[in-house]
Amino acid sequence: MIFFLLLCLLLLAQASAQGSGCPSGAHLVVARGSLEPQGPGIMGNISAKLLQRIPGSDMESLVYPARYEPYVPSQTAGVEAMTNLLLGYAKKCPKTKMIVLGFSQGAHITMDVMCGASSDGFPDTVPQSSFVAGNTIVLMGDPSLTVGQPFLVGSSHGSGIFPRHNPGGCQLIAEKTISICDSGDPFCEAGSHNLAVHMAYVKVWGEYAANHTITTFHSAQR
Known about the structure:
The chain is of the alpha/beta class and 222 residues long. Helix content is 39%, strand content 13%. The protein has one domain (42-187, 203-221): Alpha/Beta hydrolase fold, catalytic domain (Rossmann fold), CATH 3.40.50.1820. It is built from 6 helices and 6 strands, in the order αβαβαβαβββαα. A 6-stranded parallel beta sheet has the order 2-1-3-4-6-5, with helices on both faces. The two termini are 32 Å apart. Mean pLDDT is 89; it is low at 1-18. It comes from Fusarium albosuccineum. This is Acetylxylan esterase 2.
């Protein structure tokens, strides 16, 4: 009887720690690209696949300006917003795994939060290693992509327009991350000029990204 009561108390404590309203699946955080209206933007297509294929999941979109000009204030506001969002959610739902998706400026924001910012013209930040365990990151067209990073997917061979001077912080998330960049993208491959490449990632890579994310998520659940 005493053992049963102790077990009940333990289960109640665990439920309380997880918090009410926490999903049984994944919590998706989506950071849209420059000039996209508030919401998930074109990454909403991938988000929909994940919500359908990981039962019990939910999604929220990062609220930030998403301006192209001036870019730096918009991007740094996004870094602050995402840091606060992820910290708050991890405290509220410590057992829920997060999937963070970012396109273009949203990808840049995500990686500055995860790796720490170290690009010219942007305020330095420290890597947020507390977000790493069990979480998955999917990026497309990241302007801060730095050549040599192990999580690059795609045909690009160069760095983005805002490469990192200290990409070492990204090592913490390398196994949980894919960053898709194809040759010709003017943002994740500096010196290129084909905007159509930048805008085609969801069409070209969407199914791959969804499948990879689902596999990574389920492996983290084991």
